[in-house]
Every structure is written in structure tokens, then in C-alpha cells.
Amino acid sequence: MNSYQELLLKIRKFNEDRDWDQFHSLENLAKSVAIEAGELLECFQWDNENYDKQAVCEEMADVFTYLVDMADRLDVDLLEITDKKMDKNIEKYPVEKARGRNTKYNRL
Questions:
Q1: Which residues contact 79 (CB under 8 A, 6 or more apart)?
Q2: What's the pTM value of the predicted model, to 2 decimals?
Q3: DSSP string covering 3-29
Q4: Which of 28, 53, 67, 92 is deepest in the core (most CB within 10 A)?
Q5: What is the pLDDT of residues 19-32, one digit of tens each?
């Protein structure tokens, strides 16, 4: 896979070939992101050092796939909105205040 656009087209085709678009409302996609994120967390449930990396990668891919699909339906560029959010995070968490701390931005 060479680009985000190629991945997006592959996801669209996968859903279209199976007639699954009818099930992919924004609400259902948001639920699916949460469900798959739970499955990702489950990979570390009892041991956060001895995990199955392949299983972790597959769950990460499931989360990402639903996010790409949701962004497509919202007609937003997932990379662009993530970049903009990172710019906000950079402002909210200045290095001189946040380095080495896990404190929320409003308590720095």
C-alpha cells in the first residue's frame, strides 16, 4: 500500500462489494471504533509485557479502518484533521511545561 488514498479506495471497495455501506452510519462506525479499541486494550488485559504483537497490529488496523471509513463519510481528510489537532496539542502542552509530566493541559 503506497498511499492513504489507495487504502481509502480499498476500504470503499471492500464495503461496496459486500453491500455493507447500509450498516455504516456514523453512529455505527463510532460504536465500531470504540468496540475495536476495547479489543485492542484486551490484548494487554492480563500482561502488558507479554502480548501478541500480531494481534495488537490487527486490532490497531481495525480501529484505523473504521476511522478512515468514518472520515470518508464525513468528507474530511483524516490526515489533515489529525495534523490540525496535533497543532492544538502543541499549543496546549508546551514542552517547557509538559515535558515528563502526564498532567492535563488545564493543570500545567
A1: 4
A2: 0.89
A3: -HHHHHHHHHHHHHHTT-GGG--HHHH
A4: 67
A5: 999 999 999 999 99
Same domain for 13 and 39, yes or no, is: yes
Identify the three-state secondary structure at position 100.
Answer: coil
Q: What angle do CA 77, 80, 82 make, to 5 degrees?
A: 105
Percent of the chain residues past pLDDT 90, beyond the cut: 88
Q: Rounded to the nearest 5°, which phi and psi values hold at 103?
A: -75, 140
DSSP 42-58: HTTSS-SSS--HHHHHH
**What is the span of the domain harbouring residue 92?**
77-108
Taking the mean position of all CA atoms in its chain, how far away is CA 3? 17
- Reading the block at residue 84, the C-alpha cell is 490540525
Give yes or no: residues 81 and 69 share one domain: no
- The Cα–Cα gap between 15 and 66 comes to 11
Q: What distance in Å separates the CA atoms of residue 96 and residue 93, rounded to the nearest whole number? A: 8
